[in-house]
Structures are given as structure tokens and as C-alpha cells.
Amino acid sequence: MNRIILDHTLPIPLYHQLKEIFDFKIENGDWNQGQLIPTENELISYYEVSRTTVREAVNALVIEGKLEKKQGKGTLVCKPKMEEILGRLTGFAEEMAIKGLVPSAKVIEVMEVVPTALVREKLLNGQKNGKVLYIKRLRLANDEPIAIERSYWPADIGRLFGNLDLSTIAFYAVLEQNGVRLRYADENISARSADKGDAAILEVDEKSALMRMERVTYSIQGLPLEYTMTDYRSDRYMYKVRLER
């Protein structure tokens, strides 16, 4: 293998040149997913740069989610994140199918519950009477845990799912098959830390960063049909938005 020499005469910082080299190695498969990259000292020696330059290049790729530092082990190559483009109304199963992945679910809880004030506000326009259907599922892609989905449905909508296998169905497809047309959804995205229970389900460390997607879906008549909070592993999932001017 020919040694790549960094160009000190370019106006591009050395750490950025080194980052681009590392990035190419990841994209080209020279550094494979889950593989430890060379040690800091090995990189310093091979590329003939300072420790600071190596650290800045590595840290830039850690921030981008392409590398991950493991205490006591070193730095390894992350799996590429799944990307969802905002602006289209799809469910998890549809998104995974678009990516060529096999979606599945494990049902954790199903019950009728008295809605909290928040759920009443989001789903029932503040009405205090009646219960809602609560479904908690682990969402997987190619059998890998990706997200925990907590969804609430008005009782009349929830009955449509009554005799169905909740580990395999796509909710939106069931609604449309029963003549319920979807119009739009409002989403909020925030961050939270995984508590002990969620961390165990998602197979991540406690306090790992999760990305919370909060969605209210509306019918063609403008009535709320679904209130869902989905917590995604931030190391495996990301949202993408294109802004134009």
C-alpha cells in the first residue's frame, strides 16, 4: 500500500485532510463496521502528524457518528445510521421496506388505559371521558433493535386492531384498508437519555442518547387518530431535512 502524504502547503487544515482519508477508508470498506481502527500511536507514526491532528480527525468522525470510542478497547467503526427524510407520512415498517430492510416488532404491552392529560390534549381534544388503546412495541430492522414505540389510539380506532397480530401489522395500512384516510401528521423531535428499562430493551448502555419522535396523525376530516412517542437509538437512526431558499 502506498503511503498517503498529507499536503502541508494546502489551505485545508491537516486534521481535515486526515479526516477525509479516514472517511474514505470507512466508505471504501478498508475499515469495516465493528472493526477497531489503528491506535492513536500507529496513526501518528503512519501519517507523520501530531497527536492533536489525529485526535481532531477522529473526533470529527465521532461527532458524525461514523466512529465510536469504547472505553478500554479503542475506536471502532460504527454501522451506518438509517436515514429518514422528513416530509412524507409513513410508518416504521414502510420506512424500513424502502431501505431494503426487514421490519418487525415485539409487543411489550397492550391495554386500555385512562388517558393522561397530555394524551387527552393530543388525541381527544381535551375530552375527559373514555379510555384509549395503548400499545408499546419494540421496533426492529433485520432483527436489530432500533426504537421503542408507544402509541395511543381512540377506542373506536383501536378496535380495528383487536384481532390482528400486532407484531406484524402496519397500522397505517390497516386504517386505510378499513376506509380511514390519513391526511397529515405533526411531529416534534427532541432528545432524551435511555433509562434502565429502555436501555435493556434497546440493548444500549443506560443513559445512552435517544432521539424522541412525537407524532399526532390526523384523518382526512382533520380528526386526531394517533398519538405516538417513538424513541430511536441515536447511534442507528437519523432524520434528514432539505432546506431550500
From TrEMBL:
Statement: the UniProt record of this protein carries the keyword Transcription regulation: yes
Domain HTH gntR-type stretches: 12-80
Entry keyword annotation includes Transcription regulation: yes
InterPro entries: Bact_HTH_transcr_reg (IPR050679), Chorismate_lyase_/UTRA_dom_sf (IPR028978), Tscrpt_reg_HTH_GntR (IPR000524), UTRA (IPR011663), WH-like_DNA-bd_sf (IPR036388), WH_DNA-bd_sf (IPR036390)
PROSITE patterns per UniProt: HTH_GNTR (PS50949)
A biological process term (GO) from this entry: negative regulation of DNA-templated transcription
CDD domains the record matches: WHTH_GntR
Gene Ontology terms, MF aspect: DNA binding; DNA-binding transcription factor activity
Keywords, sorted A to Z: DNA-binding, Transcription, Transcription regulation
Superkingdom of origin: Bacteria
Gene3D superfamilies given in the database record: Chorismate lyase-like (3.40.1410.10), Winged helix-like DNA-binding domain superfamily/Winged helix DNA-binding domain (1.10.10.10)
PANTHER family: MANNOSYL-D-GLYCERATE TRANSPORT/METABOLISM SYSTEM REPRESSOR MNGR-RELATED (PTHR44846), MANNOSYL-D-GLYCERATE TRANSPORT_METABOLISM SYSTEM REPRESSOR MNGR-RELATED (PTHR44846:SF1)
Protein name: UbiC transcription regulator-associated domain protein
Source species of the chain: Paenibacillus nasutitermitis
